[in-house]
């Protein structure tokens, strides 16, 4: 008999909330600037509308989390209706995560205020480092996210106080002239462009598998404080932005009544109108452009001046669209504290929000890993995406999750363009989740709640449909990913038909051996716990148990984190090949030696606690552990398990450590090697 335990439910709302904020709250760092870019002083109306939509989505996700206590979100919700729909939904979510990682890392260095020429190389290096830290399974990455989220909350609170005068002035600047001059259809399209403010809410549904019960209550406590903070401060800072004296081409934001999106197009057209006729056809599409020094040298002086004006206009717009919260922080602090302290506070806010954006990049990368793992576990992607490294991280999926965002930012670094690629994946995934929940009659939703789900889902569908039509670049990006995912699925399904019997593996090998073990524990005989991997370690433990006529326990702890948890299900030994091999090797050696053996498989966030707990619970007098094979840097990030266990080991239990690469030599009776306690 195989002893398996899963005790991951130790995530409280006080920890889940900052994790959600680190994902959802970061959208503010670029949405405010984009809203003003598109709609100027009507942006506050749009932010209010988005706020109402965010509150409605928050309400829906409290029910979704309650209905899917083992991990929900688009993949699980859609899969209960159709595997194909789950692939479409999860791929849309994946496209959102890809763009979240790309836009967040680019924006981070805008907030750090590094020179433009360094943004791309530093962004690439940062993504690689984030992947490296996560490859090691570092718990410190999660702790870092919590600390930065809390610091960002503190800085935002100070900013909100400093922004009160601008907030009051911003109220007086609200205007509706935009809606009189712009067609209703165009106004609706502008609204859909800033719906990327919804990005991040799916993260909470994937956390439910780790939440303490009752999950529904914990989810509400997680969602509502974050939702209210994000919506409330979006309004405060959105109004403050409209009252700033920050100038763009001689016009302050306070006095800017024509959206910069329109003003930029006018600046662009003035340049194009002065081009030679032979150039006209190349610049008719309305996109932004850059001219080389060679091209400029062939143009008239008036054209060069017009182009320089256009470039200056674009650069000044990018200052508030790329780092709107930094601009708000510096100006509001300068107004209250003076220029010197204002600059200091602006730098502090820039560093804090930049780190928060890097944290969001980390969250997005691990969310991609989770999606890849879930799809591969259900045979929608190659099984290679389920392979776990020593730290319990799906390393193939991690590599893909690092490489793809890097490719994206190598192609494009403009935040406005990245945001347009981003929005369909965000709204599409949330739409699939809400509508799938509305359709699924098996879910515990009351009649009125289900009607509300239908109304919200159809409204979200109208947003997604509009984006798909009006933003072809976003549609092409998300559509290409969906097509690739469905193509891979089709190929794999054909392989299933062609290879038939190979997919239905017989119940043999390590797993069968583990399940067939008959456990016989003599309470009067010694008990030994093996918490190390490798054949040499197993041979040593079995030999020691045989000589002492002891029962041998072997524990395999699969470390998990929030984003490693497969939606709808915690890791199982049935899909954990390395665990099967490690425990199976010991089982085979124990059987040959006639040693009573008890295999234990545990999923947990705390490896040392599990080893200590099981060693003490089963009354073992000896604990065998392997010497760490990790570098000093890795141990600093992850923590040294052997040292932590040693510090917590009760008196009376002997701890033996030995290197995994040392072959076991037969010992004289009563002898052992290693360090003891």
Q: What layout of secondary structure does this protein have?
A:
Blueprint: E1 3-6, H1 13-24, H2 28-39, H3 43-67, H4 74-79, H5 83-111, H6 116-135, H7 139-162, H8 164-173, H9 177-181, H10 184-193, H11 202-207, H12 215-242, E2 247-248, E3 251-252, H13 260-273, H14 277-280, H15 293-297, H16 301-322, H17 324-337, H18 339-377, H19 395-411, H20 415-439, H21 447-470, H22 472-499, H23 510-515, E4 527-531, H24 535-548, E5 551-559, H25 577-593, E6 597-604, H26 607-617, E7 622-626, H27 632-638, H28 641-648, E8 654-658
Parallel strand pairs: 1-6, 4-5, 4-7, 5-6, 7-8
Antiparallel strand pairs: 2-3
Task: Give a nutshell description of this structure.
65% of the residues lie in helices and 6% in strands. The longest helix has 39 residues, at 339-377.
Tally the structural domains. 3
**Unreliable segments (pLDDT under 50, ≥5 consecutive)?**
496-507, 562-568, 668-677
Helix content: 55-70%
> What class would the helix/strand composition place it in?
mainly alpha
Shape verdict: elongated
Give, in spatial order, the strands making up the sheet with the most strands.
Answer: 1-6-5-4-7-8
The N- to C-terminal Cα distance equals 31 Å
| CATH-defined topology of the largest domain | Amino acid/polyamine transporter I
Whole-angstrom Rg = 29 Å
Number of helices: 28
**CATH homologous superfamily classification of the largest domain:** Amino acid/polyamine transporter I
SS strand fraction: 5-15%
CATH class of the largest domain: Mainly Alpha
CATH architecture classification of the largest domain: Up-down Bundle
The biggest beta sheet reads:
6 strands, parallel
How many beta-strand runs?
8
Q: What integer is the average pLDDT? A: 83
